[in-house]
């Protein structure tokens, strides 16, 4: 259905009257925001019902994307854009005297994720809907998403993110589709006439209530659902306790049940065996699988056909309880034998790995697992026993290998091994990462089941990250090559026709300048600092982690500062180094690094000798909507992880698409960016993944670098002597001495010189603006392969074996 401006206006008027009982004259901006969102929601709902009936008619294979995180960001602009009614709606709200941009600013981010993995899930939902796939996302409706970050005296402080206050407009509660989820208790097995009857008693129940968030495709009839589960207590109060006068205690159980969906764990770097996290994971898996099976039984009814009709994707190991839970359903509820149940489970599930860092691989304490999920534990034990037999066949006598590959070993349940043993496909998220999985981390699995391993390089929602975040650039590209790139990002290569067109290159520079002005304005408002929009904007935005090496960036800035102090009148192009990053709340070193960046900023920005040539900005509370402001203004994209550690990176793709040039190591998807743009259009430095391993094995000694490299020594000594009155002895110690005998684990000092040199090269190149602009154009032109549309098609074709719904 087409919506005219008049219809939209009428619909909003109705909402205002019905929901707020007021007329146009009395309405507040916030009420207009809500009314507008509700009208958009109704439009989506109508489209969704149409799309669903086609999915049913065509018996399309359904995909379910299970993820503990979906970093949705804001929805109003995205939905209006995808529905093709943004301009109309702008005019409608203007009739109320409101600028639609101020409605956009009012909307809180749905911060239901930490970083890359969560944002990837959201980008994929967008692409799947655009590609007309039937794809349902499942996650948790955290009452509090990723914390709000404030910087106080250089320190990160965390505050709760009460997003539901305003963000709930996009959620449609479905109390009628709630499911029971059971924890704790005891399991007994009885063999009756050759049938194993499992009895589960003394358990504690939680009710999982779904909330639907609709996700529309761009210029597409498809509207899919992101289903978010909320935990509710089954009994409002415990009447036994209540009647005994224990009023407060009677409420306690409620609170315990409802705590499950209270808050997102803000760690994305290391895994912690917390009972509440295990319960969150089981809530997601158990409720989602019940919902999937209910739909499937209604539409098909033959469990043996499950793998033909349903694909379930496990986004990292966080939802890996899908393996034993689907087994449980098939065994205990459908009465299948083990072999058939296992066959169906393996063929239905696929798993994406997002990390090679061993501290991030999930391992649950066996006792906790057995206590919280007794039936699931029994099933995992049996999977482990049978997998052990296979391992014995292949690696008989090699106890170290078998121990490493076992699902249960040393009183731990290893979730990645469980996924590898079961899922029919396992993929890494960039070519390099997938190679490392095959050749190193999971080599012994690859050896016995090579057919499972595959690669799908990550992708990003280019419509959000280019068309919506950078409308001026997007508009200019449309002038040059038409608007076909919005649907098919590969069309961006046609920009190469303008590679030597002076006017085009200058216009690109002008657009970048405007975006820099917009960011400079924000910096002025939030940090109280004036930055020169003609300076080079050098950007590192991502979660804070040692392996991502924000420390290398800030040490190098300290070095530039030293050089400037030696020669304050040097004729160098001014630079602004921009950081934004949240650290996991318990990650002490990460927080120290944030403090260091802020203290360096304080000193550098206030020194009259240097402040016109060098500025350092730390923008607090990095989130999707802030990324949408920073990325279009970036000229240099810092992707400087130690090679071999960053599985892919997706910020690198977003920055490239907006014309920033990558300054990076050969890590993750940077390798594929190089492949696209060629070595003349990227600033590469540092050791390769292989060199990192070699150097590590041959005994890496950062102290030797400290002793022999004066630039390094000056910077590290400065950490010890203090910056803006604060010393950073722990940071200096970890770089040179290190605890547990591992100094500079991420080889920051080893790559220092190479990093310093590449930055000199960057400055040289920037002084030839035409050359730099051409590099920028080439980066935009070659970013098409990094669209999530490409990635999602690979998942659909190679892993899920599903097709677009025809229209
Ligand atoms: C695990 C257990 C307990 C609590 C938290 C976690 C947890 C949560 C989130 C562990 C890891 C994460 C997130 C990881 C992540 O974002 N990885 C990134 O995924 C991106 C998408 O594939 C890649 O581009 C990045 O390279 C990778 O670091």
Could you state the oligomeric state of the chains shown? single chain
Structural shape: globular
| Radius of gyration from CA coordinates | 27 Å
Bound ions, cofactors and other small molecules, one mention each = ligand 26Q
Q: Let me know the number of strands.
A: 25
> Helical region count?
35
| Biggest beta sheet attributes | 10 strands, mixed
What structural class should be given to the helix and strand makeup? alpha/beta
How confident is the prediction overall: mean pLDDT? 96
In percent terms, what proportion of residues is strand? Answer: 15-25%
Quote the distance from N terminus to C terminus. 15 Å
Percentage of residues assigned to helices = 40-55%
Account of the protein in words:
- Helix 6 crosses helix 35.
- The protein has 807 residues and is of the alpha/beta class.
- Strand 21, helix 25 (588-606) and strand 22 form a beta-alpha-beta unit.
- The longest helix is centred in the first third of the chain and has 30 residues, at 29-58.
- The chain has 35 helices and 25 strands.
- The mean pLDDT is 96.
- The strands form 6 sheets. Strands 1, 4, 7, 8, 11, 12, 13, 14, 18 and 19 form a 10-stranded mixed beta sheet that branches. Strands 22-21-20-23-24-25 form a 6-stranded parallel beta sheet, with helices on both faces.
- Bound molecules: ligand 26Q.
- The site of ligand 26Q has 23 residues, from helix 6.
Report a brief summary of the structure.
The protein is of the alpha/beta class and 807 residues long. Helix content is 50%, strand content 15%.
